[in-house]
Amino acid sequence: MLSTESHRVDGHDVHEHVLTVPLDHAGATPGTIEVFAREYVRDGQRAAPRLVFFQGGPGNPANRPDVIGGWLDRALEEFRVVLLDQRGTGRSTPLDRQSLTGSAEEQARYLRHFRADSIVADAELLRAALGGEPWSALGQSYGGFCLTTYLSRAPQGLREVFVTAGLPGLATSADDVYRATYAQTAVRNAEFFARYPRDLAVAQRVADHLEATEEFLPTGERLSGRRFRTLGIALGQVSGFDALHFALEDPFTPGGRLRERFLVEVGRRLSFAAHPLYALVHESIYAQGAATGWAAERVRGEFAEFALDAPVFRFTGEHVYPWQFDEDPALVPLRGAAHLLAADATLPPLYDADVLAHNAVPVAAAVFVDDMFVPYAFSRDTARAIRGARTFVTNEHQHDGLRLDGRRLLDVLTGLARR
Questions:
Q1: Considering the entire predicted model, what is its pTM?
Q2: I need a surface site. Which of 159, 264, 317, 344 has the fewest CB within 10 A?
Q3: How are the residues of the chain apportioned to helix, strand and coil, as percentages rounded to the nearest 5?
Q4: Are residues 180 and 167 in the same domain?
C-alpha cells in the first residue's frame, strides 16, 4: 500500500511516497520493509512523464537537494522526477548496526535481499503504485548497475534509460574489477602527487607516525596507517583532489602529534556509520554465481605499489577490506555477516546477456575513459552487448561528472537516446 505526504518548495510540488514491499520478492523469506521515494513536480509539468533516479553506491540514499540545480533542474523541465531511496538506505527501512540484529547467519541471509535484483523489484512495485506507466530512468555509478539489471529483468517498465559512469561488466568477477581499479588508482595517485608534490612526504609521514604512535579518532578507535590510506577513494572525483590536498595541508602539531581537526576530518571521511550497507555489500555487487572471497584484499597483493611497506606511499581507492570490520566501530557488530557474504557462492548473476542482446529500450550512457571506479573497458564491452545502446565516451570527466556537469550530460544523453 502506498502512502503519500506532500508539500511545496520553490515552484514545485514535492510528494513523499512510502510503499510497503516484501523483503523477499521470491516469497521464500517472510517479512516486509518500506521503500521511500521523493517526487519533485515543477509547476506546469503535472502531466509530464516520470523519471526515476538510481543513486550511486551501493548503500547510499538518493540525494537530498537543498538547491534545485544541475541535472535535476534540467530533468524537471520535462519530467516528474522520482528520487528513490534504494532499500536499506535513507528512509527505506535503513540498515545499520542498530537495525541489523540476530546472529551473523541471520544477518547474512537478510543482506542477500539488498542487491540490485531486489532494488529493481521494489522499483517495479513503486511504478505500479504510481499508475503503472513505463518511466524513464537515470542511473549514476551503481545506479547504472541497477538499471542494467532492470533492463535484464523488467524492461517493460522502462521507457528510456540514461546512465552515467555506471555500465558494469556483464560477466566480470570481483577479481577482474579490482585488477582494473587498482591499476587506475595507481595512475590517479601519480597524478595527485604530481600536482601536489609536498603531499607525498606529508602522507608518508602520517602513515609512518600512525605505525609508531597511537592516535585516536573522535569515535574512539585507534587510527591505523592502512585505514588512513583508504582516504584515496577521493581520487576518483575531480573535486576529490583538492579536498584531499586540503585535508593534508597541516596535519601535525608543533609537538609532532596529529591535530585534532585533522583527526576529525579523517574520521568523517573514513567512518561507515552513515552508510554501512556500502561496506557490507560492496563486493557482492560483483558476485556472479561465485564467492568474492574478499577480492580487494587478495588482488591488492598483486600490486606491489600498494603494499604497506612499499618505498613510495600510495593511497588505495574504492576498495573494502575485511580488517575494516575490525577497526570501524560502525562495522564491528556486522563483521560475521560480512565474512559470510564474502564466502557466499550462491548469489545469482544479476544480468541476462541474452535479454540485453535483444533489448528494445532506448539506452544512452556516458562512459568516462579515466574512471577510477568503473573500468572503461568493461563499460565499453557492455555497451556493445546491449542492443541499440549509444554511448558518449569522454576523458573530460571523472566519476563525479553528473554532479559537476549534469545539465549538459543529461542533454547529451537524451539526445542520444532519442536520435
A1: 0.97
A2: 264
A3: 45, 15, 40
A4: no
